[in-house]
Design a protein that fits this description.
single chain; TIM Barrel; 3-stranded antiparallel β-sheet; 15 helices; binds flavin mononucleotide
Length: 336
């Protein structure tokens, strides 16, 4: 179902979050810094999901034109993402001048006041989603006025906490109800989407699944690494952050156990000493698409991903499969 209509369209799997965010399907692209692009965002939004552009680390001057680029490709709602601990206030301000429909925040420091961040977004008429890895953060974000909470479990790719999605989502749902919750971490197909709806979430936010798409701005070899992964070969580590010299508020990075990780595991002291040199080597590995020589962050759900697909097809399959699970297998359990 195409989302490029003026009025709201009711999809086959409709939850309150669809009305709140103005989307057809309860499927959201995680705003992955460095791994999302206007093209990918528009593909997800045009398919009726919510595409989100990761803007952390982007220079404020570059931000308005990136948002304009999304708008040349879609008239459907989309989001932009900021990691709050980086305090890119100028970047947030630059984004708000373009009035994105949704601003997705994540990872604030424990003493950072969330209220002004939420208020600025509400002031331009946009909605705020806030990603958490625990219940106290969820409560704090709701108290600050967040419209949607994203509960991200430790199975997920990128920076995660230590509680798994199956336990975290219903805890967060209970804690913040009636504020809607999106589940994230470990979801790559319609079975996962159906499962988190059963847990009380209003939809799913996916990262890893959308990395293995035609539109994702990654070297093909990186996408192929996700397809080849059986999901057992990732680990939680601080090595990518040590390399980048960045301290996250309580997160570990779920990262593929490749040659890069093997080289530096147990040699963190050396990595700290040589990090500038290593950053240069990793940039070269990126440039030539050497998937073994750069840190690749993806989730355990890589074991569920068997092909690189167009992002719109990912959205359609997720919804169709979830419908099949709900109307087929689950309905039979109660009606036979
Ligand atoms: C490479 C990568 C980069 C990410 N960058 C961000 C980010 O900048 N901001 C954010 O809120 N989440 C980020 N995430 C987390 C995703 O938004 C999402 O929560 C996570 O990927 C969900 O788990 P999944 O990979 O199992 O779908 C990133 C994830 C990955 C894999």
């Amino acid at each position: 179902m195409d989302a490029q209509h003026s009025g709201p369209v009711r999809g086959p799997l409709h939850t309150p979050i669809c009305d709140l965010l103005g989307i057809v399907h309860p499927v959201v692209l995680g705003g992955m810094g460095g791994a999302t692009s206007p093209d990918l965002v528009a593909a997800v939004s045009n398919a009726g999901g919510l595409g989100t552009l990761g803007l952390s680390g982007r220079h404020p001057e570059a931000i308005p034109s990136l948002i304009d680029e999304i708008r040349t490709r879609t008239s459907a709602p989309f989001g932009v993402n900021f990691l709050l601990f980086l305090a890119n206030d100028a970047g947030i301000q630059a984004a708000l001048t373009r009035k994105p429909p949704v601003v997705a925040y994540a990872w604030a420091w424990s003493d950072q006041d969330l209220k002004p961040y939420v208020q600025r977004v509400h002031d331009v008429g946009a909605k705020v989603t806030y990603m958490v890895s625990g219940v106290p953060e969820a409560v704090r974000a709701v108290e600050a006025g967040a419209d949607v909470i994203v509960a991200q479990g430790s199975e997920g790719g990128g920076h995660v906490g230590l509680i798994g999605t199956l336990a975290l989502v219903p805890m967060v749902v209970s804690a913040v109800s009636p504020v809607p919750v999106l589940a994230a971490g470990g979801i790559a197909d319609g079975r996962g989407l159906a499962a988190v709806l059963a847990l009380g979430a209003d939809g799913a936010l996916l990262g890893t699944r959308f990395l293995a798409t035609d539109e994702a701005p990654l070297p093909t070899s990186f996408k192929q690494a996700i397809v080849a992964s059986d999901g057992h070969d990732t680990t939680l580590t601080e090595i990518p952050d040590l390399m980048n010299g960045s301290i996250w508020p309580g997160a570990f990075a779920r990262t593929w156990r490749n040659a890069f990780l093997a080289e530096w595991s147990g040699r963190e002291f050396e990595l700290r000493r040589r990090r500038h040199e290593v950053v240069r080597a990793v940039a070269e590995a990126w440039a030539v698409g050497d998937a073994q020589r750069a840190p690749l962050l993806f989730g355990q759900d890589a074991g569920l991903i068997t092909s690189i697909l167009p992002a719109g097809e990912v959205v359609r399959r997720l919804v169709d499969e979830a419908r099949e699970v709900i109307d087929g297998r689950l309905a039979r359990l109660t009606h036979e």
